[in-house]
Every structure is written in C-alpha cells, then in structure tokens.
Amino acid sequence: MRAAFASAVNPEEPLSGLTLGELPLVVPDGWVPVDVRAASLNHHDIWSLRGVGLPADRLPMVLGCDAAGLDPDGNAVAVYPVVEDKADPRGYSLFSERHPGTLAERLAAPPGNLVRIPDGVSFAEAACLPTAWLTAYRMLVVRGRLAEAGSVLVQGAGGGVATAAVALAVALGKRVYATSRDPGKRERIGRLGATAVEPGARLPERVDIVIESVGAATFDHSMKCSAPGARIVVCGATAGHRADVDLRRVFAMQLEILGSSMGTPDELAALLDLVAAGTVKPVIDSTFPFADTTAAFTRLAEGDVFGKVVVEF
Ligand SMILES: NC(=O)c1ccc[n+]([C@@H]2O[C@H](COP(=O)([O-])OP(=O)(O)OC[C@H]3O[C@@H](n4cnc5c(N)ncnc54)[C@H](OP(=O)(O)O)[C@@H]3O)[C@@H](O)[C@H]2O)c1
C-alpha cells in the first residue's frame, strides 16, 4: 500500500526523513483494516520526524494520527486515535507512535476505535476531528463545563486546537475572545465570530473558561483574564511548560486549573453529530492529494496554516 512514513528522524530538518512509498499492511489479531479516504496532519507528525516520541528503532513508521475511511463492511468511519498500550508508560499511544499511522491507503485499528460517520459529514471533515477538534471539544464541553459558561478566552488562536476551540465555542453560543500574535490570523479569527486581540491585551470582561495550549508565554494573562470560579484548561505548553502562577489569585478567585488530554470515542461521536447537524464546520486550511503529501507537510511546517491540513486518497 502507498504510505507516508518516517524513514529517518532529524531534529534540525524533520522533513528530510519523510518518505512516500510502499509498505505492507499488518493487521494484528483482533484488529480490522480500514480503507483510508482522508487523513489530516498535526504538529505531532513533525515532532515524530524530529525523533520526539519516535526512537529510530521503530522506523520505518507510517505517520498520521487522524483518519476517516471505510470499515470492512463498507461503513464510513472516523478513527479514534488513542490505542490502549501496556508497553507505553502512559498506558496508551497514538497511531504513528507504536502502531502504524493514518497516512496510508490502509490502516489497521481495533474495532472499538471506529466511530460511525453520520450522514452529511465528508471524509475530509471527519478526518479533521479525532485529535485537535476532539481535544478542543473535551477542553470546552467536559473539563471547562461550557454549559455553565458565558464567555471563553482562547490563547494562541492560530493553532490547530485553538482554531477548533474558537469555532466550537462560537457555534455553541458563547462570547469568545482569542489572542494571536499574527494580525492576519486575528482577522481570520474575527471572521469565525470571535473578538481577536493581541497577546496580553485587556479584555472587556473576565471570562469563565480559558483554553490554554500555549503555556508559559500566555499563562499569566490567562490567570488575569479569569472571572471568579473560572476554569483554565491546559492541553499543551508549546511556548514553555514552566509557568509563573500567582497562587493568591488561584485561591482568592477560586480558580480551577485543569489538565485535559484528547477525549473519548463517545465524545468523538458527539462532535461528529454537531458537524452533521450543521452546528459547526471544521476549518480546513488546505487539501492535498496523497501524491503531494510532502507539500502538505511543508505547509504545516512553515507555520502559516489556519485550520487543518488534509490529505486525500
Ligand atoms: N493534550 C492533548 O491531548 C493534546 C492534543 C493536541 C495538541 N496538544 C498540544 O497542544 C499544543 C497546541 O497544539 P496545536 O496542534 O494546536 O499546535 P499549533 O497548531 O502549532 O499551535 C500552537 C499555537 O501556539 C501559539 N504560540 C506558539 N508559540 C507562542 C509564543 N511564544 N507565544 C504566544 N503564542 C505562541 C501560536 O498561536 P499564534 O500564532 O496565533 O499566536 C500557535 O499557532 C501543542 O503543545 C500540542 O502538543 C495536546
């Protein structure tokens, strides 16, 4: 089968280890094959090519965490990206870490990882959801208790998780503020229905939920923007994981600082239903045919993406 895989890892020039070629499909006992129709890229794929979480002894490794395609009965399915994994210290791994990933014509997955795609959702849209969108959904709806909130701040809003959080929070009827360093991205965030501001700017109100994937560079601002009882939900630390936390503000304002990782298959199904109902539409930056996967990676690595980069088979 045709696949995009890491044939080498290189911390300085990650794309030099990206290869498009033929690899065999291996289906472990109890797993099923999926015909992949669309896959989407994440920064995780570039980290893998740098060798982060992907030691050289696991090469060649098919890249990609996110996919949508057809199960053996011909049903349209999205592939939930988390695989239970006793060999991993976290107890789980994502596709492309220990098991071949989603950037291939065919993929092997546990049957419990296949979530039916409802009518009205394209393969490209479904392929955007399993990692970045699912993470944003859980951060907002489950960990952040969105139903109790009036307002949301999303930090670093040009990012994959953050763009999804803006689109979801707007679609679910909240007042949404978003920071981005880039004026062009602020303009596009504004078009999604959020109030876009420069990092560190004073907001017109204190918010009930902050979506934090940036980390040290924005955390102090996240604390200062929080209303009493607010939830600051953290899924990543792109700009540094050692933040300065004023504990007086945590107890005086009764803030909750919550970690969040990925989501559950049921949460992925709920997200697919929101897309099918037309409540929200995944933001797709660009779509490439499989033969142009290297161009898709180049686009992501150059950092000027707004939304998801999709590869179609
Ligand atoms: N826990 C989980 O389950 C999970 C799942 C997915 C991702 N993650 C993590 O979440 C983070 C975001 O992932 P992503 O895929 O959305 O990444 P991404 O697309 O690279 O977005 C990161 C965003 O952070 C902002 N940023 C970066 N450096 C900054 C700095 N120095 N100061 C201020 N803002 C900065 C940028 O926003 P602007 O350019 O708009 O300013 C950038 O677009 C990553 O750390 C990733 O590992 C965690």
Textual characterization of the structure:
By secondary structure, the protein is of the alpha/beta class. It folds into two domains: 145 residues, Medium-chain alcohol dehydrogenases, catalytic domain (Quinone Oxidoreductase, Chain A, domain 1, Alpha-Beta Complex); 128 residues, Quinone Oxidoreductase, Chain A, domain 1, CATH 3.90.180. The strands form four sheets. Strands 3, 5, 6, 9, 10, 17 and 18 form a seven-stranded mixed beta sheet that branches. A six-stranded parallel beta sheet has the order 13-12-11-14-15-16. It has a three-stranded antiparallel beta sheet with strand order 2-1-4, with no helix packed on it. The radius of gyration is 19 Å and the shape is globular. It starts with a strand and ends with a strand. The model has no long low-confidence stretch (mean pLDDT 96). The site of NADP nicotinamide-adenine-dinucleotide phosphate has 28 residues, from α2 and α3.
